Amino acid sequence: MSDFEYAPALESKAIANISKDYGLFINGKFIASHNKKRFETINPANEEVLAKISLADEVDIDKAVKAARAAYVKVWSKMSGKERAKYLFRIARLLQERSREFAVVESLDNGKPIRETRDIDIPLSAAHFFYHAGWADKLEFAGFGDKPKAHGVVAQIIPWNFPLLMLAWKIAPALATGNTVVLKPAETTPLTALLFAEVCQQADLPPGVVNIITGDGSTGAALTKHPDIDKVAFTGSTEVGKLIARSLAVSNTPVTLELGGKGANIVFEDAPLDQAVEGIINGIFFNQGHVCCAGSRLLLQENIHDEFLSKLQKRMSKIRLGDPLDKNTDIGAINSAAQLAKIHELSSSGQAEGADIWSAPCQIPNKGFWFAPTIFTGVTQAHRIAREEIFGPVLSVLTFRTPQEAIEKANNTPFGLSAGVWSDKGSRILWAGNHLKAGVIWANTFNKFDPASPFGGYKESGWGREGGRHGLGAYIKGAK
Ligand code: NAP
Ligand code: MG
C-alpha cells in the first residue's frame, strides 16, 4: 500500500491576540521599559516576527523588585492561605478557559506542535495551579513546622522549551507559600508569560504579587544579583546554573537549580519491544527533544539490538514533521537558529568521531529551523554525543550485555535527571531503580509528569526539587 496521506488539519491563528508591542508587567500594569530598547520574538517555523518585546535593564528590575517587596509586606504576607488559594484557583480556571488561545500562542512562539501545547503544556500548567491552590491553606500540615514562613521576594528565571509550563512550575508554589515573584521568561519565548500577566489582571491578583520582566541573559543575570531578592529559582542550562550558584554563594541566598540532563532509556531483552519503541520515540522526539529529562541515550541489550533498531527506524519513518499548527504534526520547529546550530555541531561531531548516522526521511520546510529525527548507532561512551546534552531530536544508541553494565553506562554521566527502564520483570525494574542515579525513573513508560510528583536531579542536573511536597519546601524559609 502506498503512503497514507493526511489532509492538513490546521488550528486557526484567529484566537491568538498578539499585540505588536509589549511593555513590562510591573505592579499589576504593563509599562514601558526604562531604556526603551526592544527585541523581536519570532515564529521559528517560518521566521516571521510575532511581536516586539521590551528589554528590561537594572532600573526596571529595581522597580519590579520594589513592587514585589511592597506587595509582600503590605498584602500577600498578611493574607491567609485560604484567601491566597482563591487566587490560585482563579488563575487555574482562567488558564483552562483560555487554553486554546494559550496553546496557539505557545506553538507560534516556540515552534512546538499544537497537539502538545493543547494536550500537555497548557493542561499541565493549569493542573499546577490547581494542585498548589490545594496546598495554600494546609501548609502547617505539610511537615515544615507549625508556622511555615515564605522567603519573601523570589526571582525566577525560566527557559524556552516549556515556556508556560515552567512558569507554572515556578509561580504556583511560590504564591501558594506566600512569596511574591519577579519572573523572567526566555528571550525567544516571552509571549505566554505576557499573556499570563493578563490572566493575573483578570484574576484581580493584588498588584506586585507577580511581575514579569522580559529581556535577555543580561537581564537574568542582573535580576539574580539584585540585593533585595530573598530566593532564586532557575531552570536552564548547567553552564548558566553554575554562574548563578557562584554569584549567589557570596550572599548565601537560597537557590534551586533545575539544569540539564542526558537521560538513559534502558531496554532489556525481555521488554515488550513494540511498546518500548513507542516509549523511546516519546522519550527523545517529544517537544523536538528540547526536554531536559529526554531519554537521549538508548541503552539496548546487545542481543535485541538489530531487531529493535529496525522497529525503531520503521516507526521513525512515520513521524510527521511540519507546521506546528497542524494537528497531525508530531515534530515541530527547532526553537531558534542558535539551537539548530548547536544540534548541527554536535551531530557533526558524532559523525567525525565515527558513529553512524541515520535520519528519518522527512521533508524539511524551506523556511524556519528544522532538524529531522535522527539516530546515531555505534556510539561509544567517549563520544561527545553520548556525554553532552544535544537538546534536539537526536538519539545516541549504545549497547550492553549484563544488567550491571547497563547501570554502569547509564550512571556514567555528569548529569542525573531522568532514566527509563523497559522490562517485563518487576524485580528487575526495582533493582535498576535502586541503582540508577537519577531524580526521576520511569518504568515501561517515559516523560510522564504530575504536579504532585517531585522533579529534579543529581549532580550537574541541579539542586532541589520542584513539584509535590518537596517542591513546596523550596519556597519555605528554613525548610529541609
Ligand atoms: P539558558 O541559556 O541557561 O537560559 C535559561 C534562562 O536563563 C533564560 O531565561 C535565559 O535568558 C537566562 N539566562 C541566560 N544567561 C543568564 C545569566 N548569566 N544569568 C541569569 N539568567 C541567564 O538555557 P536554555 O538554553 O534557555 O534552556 C535549555 C536548558 O534548560 C537545557 O540545558 C535544559 O536541560 C534545561 N532545562 C532544565 C529543566 C529542568 O527542570 N531540569 C527544564 C527545562 C530545561 P535568555 O533566554 O534571554 O538568554
Ligand atoms: Mg519566539
Automatic annotation (TrEMBL):
SUPFAM superfamilies assigned to the protein according to its UniProt record, in alphabetical order: ALDH-like
Superkingdom, taxonomy of origin: Bacteria
InterPro entries the record matches: Ald_DH/histidinol_DH (IPR016161), Ald_DH_C (IPR016163), Ald_DH_N (IPR016162), Aldehyde_DH_dom (IPR015590)
Gene3D superfamilies: Aldehyde Dehydrogenase, Chain A, domain 1, Aldehyde Dehydrogenase, Chain A, domain 2
Keyword Oxidoreductase applies: yes
Aldehyde dehydrogenase domain ranges (all copies): 31-476
Gene Ontology molecular function: oxidoreductase activity, acting on the aldehyde or oxo group of donors, NAD or NADP as acceptor
Keywords: Oxidoreductase
UniProt record similarity statement: Belongs to the aldehyde dehydrogenase family.
PANTHER family given in the database record: ALDEHYDE DEHYDROGENASE-RELATED
The protein's name in its UniProt record: Betaine-aldehyde dehydrogenase
